[in-house]
Amino acid sequence: MRIGRAETEAARAACFAVRRAVFIEEQQIPEAEEWDAEDATCLHLLAEDDTGPLGCARLIARGTTAKIGRVAVMPRARGTGLGRRIMEVALDEARAAGFAEALLESQVGVIGFYETMGFAAEGPEYDDGSGILHRVMRRPL
């Protein structure tokens, strides 16, 4: 298993394939809500093995804050700890880049997962346009 920066077009395409499978096809998030201008400039992380792409995430710079988003794990890799490993790599990347804190917008159903990684929820629940309730979560780095 490898988790690292998606620095080639092929690696970024693999990240987008994971996002399409998990968010658009499985979770029925409207395609127009999934893709944005940030995809062209952010740091994408790809988890893969010899069978192909298994998960992804992205980091967006917001001043001294690293916004982690689009964290996705393919169904065949769920329950293996891959989501935690992707988040650990994302947090390591954020620390190495000198960010003071990490922020994410968690789907309400997985808030507990992010809490185990030191994130704290803040503010009310909201629909980010996907039809799925979210909350902002933050943690120092």
Describe this structure in words.
The protein has a single domain (2-140), classed as 3-Layer(aba) Sandwich (Aminopeptidase). It is globular and about 40 Å long. With 141 residues, it is α+β, with helices and mostly antiparallel strands. The model has no long low-confidence stretch (mean pLDDT 97). The protein is built from 4 helices and 7 strands, in the order βααβββαβαββ. The longest helix is centred in the first third of the chain and has 18 residues, at 9-26. The two termini are 25 Å apart. It has a 7-stranded mixed sheet, with helices on both faces.
Task: Name the features.
38% strand; Aminopeptidase; globular; 141 residues; alpha+beta
Helix content: 25-40%
Order of H and E elements: EHHEEEHEHEE
The number of domains? 1
Examine the secondary-structure arrangement and name the CATH architecture.
3-Layer(aba) Sandwich
Q: Give average pLDDT, whole number.
A: 97
Percent of sequence in beta strands: 35-45%
CATH fold naming:
Aminopeptidase
Name of the CATH first level: Alpha Beta
Low-confidence stretches: none
Radius of gyration: 14 Å
Biggest pleated sheet: 7 strands, mixed
Structural class: alpha+beta
Inertia-based shape? globular
Give the tally of β-strands.
Answer: 7
Spatial order of the strands forming the largest sheet: 1-2-3-4-5-7-6
Number of helical stretches of at least 4 residues: 4
CATH superfamily: Gcn5-related N-acetyltransferase (GNAT)
Q: Roughly how many Å apart are the termini?
A: 25 Å
